[in-house]
Amino acid sequence: MNHRDSADTPAPWRVAGYRIQLARAVDLPRLAAVERAAARQFPTRLIPPAQREGVVPLAVLRQAHAEGRLWVALSPAGPPVGFAVAGSCDGEAFLIELDVHPAHQCLGLGRALVARVAQWARAAGYAALALTTFASLPWNAPFYARLGFQALAPEAGGPELAARLAAEARLGLRERVAMRLPLAQPQD
Ligand SMILES: CC(C)(COP(=O)(O)OP(=O)(O)OC[C@H]1O[C@@H](n2cnc3c(N)ncnc32)[C@H](O)[C@@H]1OP(=O)(O)O)[C@@H](O)C(=O)NCCC(=O)NCCS
């Protein structure tokens, strides 16, 4: 499986003056603040307060950056205000993390980041893009459903997905659901 983004071009996508593009090394240390600010929107009935403060470790971001599977939304002023990290799970592409700073939400950046990840996944030959999310928050499962993701019954997922859901439950996350977006291949 080629994890490098062969379809990537130097030209970033533009959304209302923002740019969606592969992360630059300089962006990496700024992403934790974006993630923390975004996560504070999660109600503590669904996630323990301490878990809300957790972020993707810098080493994981560095690895994703090196492998071309970390994208940012850059504000017109320059700094990143959103990001998406992808990987794989049970042989399918997986959206590891997606965050947009609350001051920049509802502008289409989240949707554009997901589309960028789906483009990468399709180009890398994955048949689907999966994720786990909160079932009832309007900006989680219903948002992904509008993008074409379908909820996966627990027994329909593979062992890695089951392990992810179990790990999330152990951390105290509630009402989690797995979702999957089938990806049409270029020859389809
Ligand atoms: C999920 C997230 C990345 C979306 O980013 P965004 O830039 O706001 O995304 P978009 O502008 O493309 O779309 C947001 C959608 O959520 C909806 N939405 C956001 N907040 C909402 C709310 N409080 N009530 C109802 N709908 C809401 C918007 O109406 C929009 O829907 P639409 O595009 O179908 O009309 C952002 O909300 C976020 O960072 N949330 C906290 C972290 C998180 O939940 N990450 C995903 C975990 S799987």
Summarize the structure in words.
The chain is α+β, with helices and mostly antiparallel strands and 188 residues long. The protein has a single domain (13-182), classed as Aminopeptidase. The protein is 29% helix and 26% strand. The chain is built from 6 helices and 8 strands. The chain has an 8-stranded mixed beta sheet, with helices on both faces. Strand 3 (70-74) and strand 4 form a beta hairpin. The longest helix has 15 residues, at 109-123. The two termini are 19 Å apart. 35% of the residues are buried. Mean pLDDT is 93; it is low at 1-10. Bound molecules: coenzyme A.
Distance between the termini: 19 Å
CATH superfamily: Gcn5-related N-acetyltransferase (GNAT)
CATH topology category name: Aminopeptidase
Largest sheet: 8 strands, mixed
CATH architecture label: 3-Layer(aba) Sandwich
Instruction: Specify the overall morphology.
Output: globular
Briefly summarize what is shown.
The protein is built from 6 helices and 8 strands, in the order E-E-H-H-H-E-E-E-H-E-H-E-H-E.
Task: Give the helix/strand layout.
Blueprint: E1 13-15, E2 18-22, H1 31-39, H2 49-52, H3 58-66, E3 70-74, E4 80-89, E5 92-100, H4 109-123, E6 128-134, H5 141-146, E7 150-152, H6 159-170, E8 176-182
Parallel strand pairs: 5-6
Antiparallel strand pairs: 1-2, 2-3, 3-4, 4-5, 6-8, 7-8
Residues 38-39, 41, 98-100, 105-111, 131, 133, 138-140, 143, 146 line the site of coenzyme A.
